[in-house]
Amino acid sequence: MHETTSENDKIIELVSQYIDLSVTPFNKSERTVVKVDKRDPMYGGNGIVYLLQMFDEGELTNNRIGAYMVFFNKGDQAGFHTHGTRNEEELYIVMHGEGEYTEMTKKDGIIRTKTLKKGSITAMSGEGFHSLTNTTDEILIVFVITTNNPK
Q1: What CATH number has the domain bearing residue 31?
Q2: CA-to-CA dists, residue 104 to 62, 128, 129, 137, 147, angstroms
Q3: Among candidate residues 107, 40, 46, the one with its CA nearest the CA of residue 80
Q4: Sign (positive/negative) of CA torsion 59, 61, 62, 67?
Q5: HEC profile for 41-106?
Q6: Is the pLDDT of residue 118 over 90?
Q7: What would the pLDDT profile of 61-95 be if each residue is shown by its tens digit?
Q8: Residue 24's pLDDT is what?
Q9: Contact predicate 98/92, CB 8 Å
């Protein structure tokens, strides 16, 4: 389900209270979020996660660099998922709030759970699975960088 422009503006305004959402693309005018994508649920997780996309489609190599994931409520979660089937690697950089990051393999189950807070960085590659959950009453804002690893 897509939000209306008014609802998108409210989400952007709220997140802007915590971090600067300005983007300065090379040789282009400064701007802000180009799209808000509501995931309800995200990869089968709990609650709602919003993706605030910072670049237009086609502007970057794989169109997923520079998206923020925003978890508004305690318990909001991006459920377990992998990017290995798409040959991607993904970094999470926590900009605000705190959450629980969990990694697992299909074969061995959960291999690590770690508390992430402002400044924490995680890296996921290959066929591994990962999940992130907001564990506090504060908003959790994560900057996501996804890369393509050509075969």
Answers
A1: 2.60.120.10
A2: 25, 6, 5, 26, 20
A3: 46
A4: negative
A5: CECCCCCCEEEEECCCCCCCCCCCCCEEEEECCCCCEEEEECCHHHCEEEEEEEEECEEEEEEEEC
A6: yes
A7: 655 666 788 998 999 999 998 877 777 788 899 99
A8: 87
A9: no
**Rounded CA gap, 122 and 5, in Å?**
32
Q: Domain of residue 112: give its range.
A: 5-148
Total of domains in the chain: 1
Cα–Cα distance for residue pair 138/55, rounded to 1 Å: 26
The pLDDT tens digits of the residues spanning 28-62 come to: 899 999 889 999 999 999 999 999 988 877 777 65
Q: What φ, ψ does residue 16 adopt, rounded to 5°?
A: -65, -15
Backbone angles phi, psi at 67, to 5 degrees: -105, 135
Instruction: Identify the three-state secondary structure at position 32.
Output: coil
Tokens of 72: 């508004």
- Give pLDDT, residue 1: 43
Distance CA 72, CA 125 (A): 26
